[in-house]
Amino acid sequence: xxxxxxxxxxxxxxxxxxxxxxxxxxxxxxxxxxxxxxxxxxxxxxxxxxxxxxxxxxxxxxxxxxxxxxxxxxxxxxxxxxxxxxxxxxxxxxxxxxxxxxxxxxxxxxxxxxxxxxxxxxxxxxxxxxxxxxxxxxxxxxxxxxxxxxxxxxxxxxxxxxxxxxx
Length: 167
Description:
- The chain is 81% helix and 0% strand.
- It is mainly α and 167 residues long.
- The chain has a single domain, classed as Ferritin, core subunit, four-helix bundle (Ferritin, Up-down Bundle), CATH 1.20.1260.10.
């Protein structure tokens, strides 16, 4: 790959994050309708709205830098995002809820790392506005991850009791 200007590199990173966030929003909205564990469904629905606002803020920043979101990257992110769902075939609603929480927790922590990369690249490019935006969103992702972490054990206990008593 040929060298690119710092601005172009930053735009590419923003495009990647925007594509991921749009895909995650869709996935969160789907998870908010699945399973039977109301606390998780509420967290997913709430965070889907927050994720939408995040990719809107990122898109505005990218446009301020003269770029536009990549529809190809967004489409590719959507294609690969639902692959883990096939592992849920044959599971009860309670088990699906637990698995969704685990997937959500994993996604949120991945996003924390992604925003670390974006903030680092923005700082290296001398773009304090994008760096600040990345840090703000990174903190939102940490909070979502922490919320989901505290739902894992209770949802797994419910799923276990349901499946073990049915056996």
